[in-house]
TrEMBL record:
Regions crossing the membrane: 108-132, 547-564
Organism: Rhodotorula paludigena
Alphabetical list of Gene3D superfamilies matching this protein: Glycogen Phosphorylase B
Intracellular or extracellular location(s): Endoplasmic reticulum membrane
Record family assignment: Belongs to the glycosyltransferase group 1 family.
GO molecular function: GDP-Man:Man(1)GlcNAc(2)-PP-Dol alpha-1,3-mannosyltransferase activity; GDP-Man:Man(2)GlcNAc(2)-PP-Dol alpha-1,6-mannosyltransferase activity
UniProt KW Glycosyltransferase keyword: yes
EC number of the protein: 2.4.1.132, 2.4.1.257
Record's catalysed reaction(s): a beta-D-Man-(1->4)-beta-D-GlcNAc-(1->4)-alpha-D-GlcNAc-diphospho-di-trans,poly-cis-dolichol + GDP-alpha-D-mannose = an alpha-D-Man-(1->3)-beta-D-Man-(1->4)-beta-D-GlcNAc-(1->4)-alpha-D-GlcNAc-diphospho-di-trans,poly-cis-dolichol + GDP + H(+); an alpha-D-Man-(1->3)-beta-D-Man-(1->4)-beta-D-GlcNAc-(1->4)-alpha-D-GlcNAc-diphospho-di-trans,poly-cis-dolichol + GDP-alpha-D-mannose = an alpha-D-Man-(1->3)-[alpha-D-Man-(1->6)]-beta-D-Man-(1->4)-beta-D-GlcNAc-(1->4)-alpha-D-GlcNAc-diphospho-di-trans,poly-cis-dolichol + GDP + H(+)
Cellular component aspect of the GO annotation: endoplasmic reticulum membrane
Domain Glycosyltransferase subfamily 4-like N-terminal stretches: 34-255
Name listed for the protein in its UniProt record: Alpha-1,3/1,6-mannosyltransferase ALG2
Length: 565
């Protein structure tokens, strides 16, 4: 008897014919403000512009004009639904965050599947009275009811957490694209706390007692992450660096993820702020300034920027040069408090003047750090009639202030400093290049894929032949001396050379990191997943699930019979 082996090959099954415009759902844990959230919003908007019907589902979203969420999720650009937010908290006494996040996602997925079930069963006599009509309008992201129906989606994009992927595929019959910003087991606070200094995640975790203890209690969660990630139809990552980390972290999957870079909107950067608000006028200056935009966390290594800046100032050739470190700060987080306090102590030891100011009111909450180790934060910006401080720590900047800082002609910015090591991708260097600023970053992680370092002209002849015109910034090892030398080289550029770096940066963002490119890449991944012809019910995972529930049912029935008899 001849066995048709080819018929058992998933790749041999003809693809499904798809409509030109797909229905695409995005499922994201908490849709607040952050790099992952920005990518989800950008991808959803980009797909929508390409003609696809897109809806976003999340466990948390702040609506209203002052909500801590992106404008596109509040002004009607995207349809956002909040569901699965009524049972599980975000944490239990500040701990078990990952467990709570997984449970919240499962709640969201079950709510999603229930709404899909109501759509398919809405013709049943009793359910037709229970379910809301499909055309019932949504008034806001929180306008969700367990009686709502959901029309089927061609593909679902899920990111950050992979726990719900098998449920969406096996119970909902959905094709799933999973976007892995970075393996969760390498992102947890306990993971970073176990290490005293940044390390290359591709080389494994250095041995320590804390790391071994963490590895033991995280083992079931990490195994679940690997198993559920492998169930996705397509896996995407944000950089080649993350792809290498992914393959090392999940060796059993034997899958090579596809790189889809995040994007920035060029129209939002590189332009002068037409109307500077009165409370922000103090940021306008004609004195040269070095800019760092990062959260005040230890792993962001802001001390490198301070050390390099101090060495440039000590050389005496740039007496008016300033450094502004801007970024998010939360007084409830001990890492934020200690990082800012350590930076202030470092600036004091280096003999530089400083000022710390929060652009938004800080919550009056108990500090997790003793009073002697807390930073000094002023309730007001530096006085306009005095000399500006050498180092300014600007906390919790607004979108308007960020735009102003990234406008070289208004803020005096001459370079963007990006200090983190082994960053997964890093959106800030793209924002700097899109604004026409040269970027200085470490020779590690994602920035090595975004920043182009072809060197700077060292002579008039070299400047004339244009060999360096592709340069968008400089990449240097984590060494304050090397960074100070790089900064001196950037400061020595002529206005024409600086403008050339700015043009090269904008062109690189336009070619590789535009929203149009992001939309194309996501569309390709969604189409590839949705057109797969091999049925989900024929997969090994689905058959194992059916066998498991079958055995459990037999055991339950046998137990009931034994009790009754």
């Amino acid at each position: 008897m001849e066995i048709n082996v080819q018929a058992q090959d998933p790749d041999s099954v003809p693809p499904i014919h798809l409509p030109p415009n797909l229905r695409i759902a995005f499922i994201h844990p908490d849709l607040g403000l952050g790099g992952a959230e920005r990518l989800v919003v950008d991808a959803a908007v980009a797909l929508q512009k390409r003609g696809h019907e897109v809806e976003v589902f999340t466990s948390y979203h702040e609506d209203g004009a002052k909500g801590r969420s992106f404008d596109e999720t509040r002004n009607g650009t995207l349809t956002v639904h909040v569901l699965g937010n009524s049972i599980f908290p975000r944490s239990i006494l500040g701990r078990f965050t990952i467990i709570c996040a997984m449970l919240r996602q499962l709640h969201l997925v079950f709510s999603f599947l229930l709404a899909a079930f109501l759509y398919h069963a809405s013709s049943w006599p009793l359910l037709s009275l229970f379910a809301l009509p499909v055309e019932t309008p949504f008034r806001s992201s929180s306008d969700w009811s367990p009686r709502r129906q959901l029309e089927p989606f061609d593909v679902i994009v899920i990111d950050q957490l992979s726990t719900g992927i098998p449920l969406l595929r096996w119970f909902g019959g959905n094709r799933v694209v999973f976007y892995c910003h970075f393996p969760d087991q390498l992102l947890s606070p306990s993971s970073s706390a176990a290490l005293s200094s940044p390390h290359d995640p591709r080389a494994g975790t250095p041995f320590s007692i804390a790391a071994e203890v963490r590895k033991t209690y995280r083992a079931p969660i990490d195994a679940l992450e690997q198993a559920t990630t492998g169930e996705a139809d397509k896996i995407l990552v944000n950089s080649e660096f993350t792809a290498q980390v992914f393959e090392r972290t999940f060796p059993a999957l034997r899958r090579q993820p596809r790189v889809v870079y995040p994007s920035v909107d060029l129209q939002q950067y590189g332009n002068e702020v037409a109307k500077v608000e009165e409370q922000d006028r103090w940021l306008v200056s004609d004195k040269p300034m070095l800019l760092s935009i990062n959260r005040f966390e230890g792993k962001k290594d802001l001390s490198l920027a301070v050390d390099a800046f101090a060495k440039v100032r000590a050389a005496g050739s740039h007496p008016g040069l300033r450094l502004i470190c801007a970024g998010g700060y939360d007084p409830r987080l001990g890492d934020n408090v200690r990082t800012l306090s350590n930076l202030q102590q470092l600036v004091g030891k280096l003999g530089l003047s400083q000022h710390a100011y929060s652009a938004s009111a800080l919550p009056d909450v108990p500090s997790p750090v003793p009073a002697r180790s807390r930073p000094t934060i002023s309730p007001s910006p530096p006085p306009a009639d005095a000399s500006p401080p050498d180092v300014l720590f600007l906390l919790n900047i607004s979108a308007a202030q960020k735009s102003l800082l990234l406008s070289p002609s208004q803020s005096g910015a001459v370079a963007l400093l990006y200090t983190p090591m082994f960053e997964h991708f890093g959106i800030v260097p793209l924002e700097g290049m899109a604004s026409g600023l040269p970027v200085l970053a470490t020779t590690t992680g994602g920035p090595t894929e975004t920043v182009v370092d072809r060197g700077l002209p060292s002579s008039a002849d070299e400047a004339a032949d244009g060999a360096w015109t592709e340069t968008t910034g400089l990449l240097r090892p984590r060494d304050p001396v090397a960074w100070s030398e790089a900064l001196s080289a950037l400061l020595a550029l002529s206005p024409a050379q600086r403008a050339q770096l700015g043009r090269a940066g904008k062109e690189r963002v336009r070619s590789f990191f535009s929203q149009e490119r992001l939309g194309e890449d996501f569309e390709r991944a969604c189409v590839d997943a949705a057109k797969k012809g091999w049925p989900i019910v024929s997969e090994v995972g689905f058959k194992k699930m059916c066998m498991f529930f079958g055995i459990m049912t037999v055991c339950f029935v046998a137990s009931v019979v034994a009790v009754v008899v």
